[in-house]
């Protein structure tokens, strides 16, 4: 198992953003974002708010700074409020946000072609599909979703695959 790098912890506040999609961000101090950046663009990290369970996210460029998008779900779960400081820890995501649920691993182990088709997808689509599987509460639902995604990947029924034809 790969060794995970040390976390970097900083104090942040929730910052409002004007726009239809994202309403709040967590501004990452420049010295923290510089630790993780290798080139331009977003950097995948694992994040923890107030020492609670880690979740995959990205350090996204926004002007001269980097931010973490704060979803309504994240704000509600951690009871974050504008102007109230909280601690954030980030560390490199060695899996690039692509940690496979065990149910999906089993499906791919049993179907080589589905595994090849999944590997050919773009990382962002993979992350979305894996999130969809992981978000199911029951094992049975995660298995069902895993089988559905494998079948759609093989028959080129995923949205991005349809647009390539």
Automatic annotation (TrEMBL):
Q: Name one Pfam family in it.
A: OmdA
Q: Which InterPro entries match?
A: AF2212/PG0164-like_sf (IPR037079), DUF1905 (IPR015018)
Can you say what this protein is called? DUF1905 domain-containing protein
Q: Which organism is it from?
A: Arcticibacter tournemirensis
Q: What is the lineage of its organism?
A: Bacteria, Pseudomonadati, Bacteroidota, Sphingobacteriia, Sphingobacteriales
């Amino acid at each position: 198992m790969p060794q995970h790098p040390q976390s970097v912890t900083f104090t942040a506040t929730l910052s409002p953003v004007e726009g239809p999609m994202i309403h709040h961000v967590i501004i990452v101090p420049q010295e923290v974002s510089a630790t993780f950046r290798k080139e331009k663009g977003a950097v995948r990290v694992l994040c923890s708010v107030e020492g609670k369970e880690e979740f995959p996210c990205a350090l996204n460029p926004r002007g001269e700074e980097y931010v973490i998008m704060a979803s309504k779900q994240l704000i509600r779960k951690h009871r974050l409020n504008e102007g109230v400081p909280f601690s954030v820890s980030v560390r490199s995501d060695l899996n690039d946000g692509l940690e496979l649920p065990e149910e999906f691993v089993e499906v791919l182990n049993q179907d080589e072609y589905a595994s090849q088709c999944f590997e050919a997808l773009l990382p962002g689509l993979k992350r979305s599909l894996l999130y969809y599987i992981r978000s199911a509460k029951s094992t049975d639902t995660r298995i069902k979703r895993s089988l559905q995604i494998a079948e759609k990947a093989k028959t080129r029924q995923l949205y991005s695959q349809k647009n390539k034809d």
